[in-house]
């Protein structure tokens, strides 16, 4: 079983843009938003993925992610529950850690969130200057709940 341990934060300024080593365009939708098991379809640039996440505790959640054909993802997007989410993801390296910073578009603009996936719950890390309030575990900031 895959376990994802991540911390999520609000972003307080746009300095991450200058620090970013890359960026990607993402479109995603949810086939299921059930808190016990979310099923997400994501198109990231020219690749597609299906992800199943289970209920977890704290920052840890069971997660299974698989690459799927882009054509399948496009068809699955039509089956997703509204709303679809579009965002730009910036990758920022800070003190050896890979931060993902998401700028949301459409109705979710100007929301910007940052996530850091860590190897274990005891892992210690430094926060970049653009990081604000921690929202790890706050369901309102789960991608599956945004825009509802």
Structural notes for this entry:
This protein has a single domain (3-141), classed as Hypothetical Protein Pfu-838710-001, CATH 2.40.320. The mean pLDDT is 95. The protein has an eight-stranded antiparallel beta barrel. The chain is mainly β and 148 residues long. It has helices spanning 16-19, 70-77, and strands spanning 3-11, 22-34, 37-44, 47-54, 60-68, 81-94, 97-104, 112-117, 131-134. The chain contains two helices and nine strands, in the order E-H-E-E-E-E-H-E-E-E-E. Helix content is 8%, strand content 53%.
Task: Give the secondary structure arrangement, pairings included.
Elements: E1 3-11, H1 16-19, E2 22-34, E3 37-44, E4 47-54, E5 60-68, H2 70-77, E6 81-94, E7 97-104, E8 112-117, E9 131-134
Could you name the CATH class?
A: Mainly Beta
Strand order of the largest sheet: 1-5-4-3-2-6-7-8
User: What distance separates the N and C termini?
Assistant: 29 Å
Give the CATH H-level superfamily.
Hypothetical Protein Pfu-838710-001
Report the biggest beta sheet as strand number plus sense, adding barrel if it closes. 8 strands, antiparallel, barrel
**What structural class do the secondary elements suggest?**
mainly beta
Uncertain runs with pLDDT below 50, 5 residues or more?
Answer: none
Coarse shape: globular
CATH fold label = Hypothetical Protein Pfu-838710-001
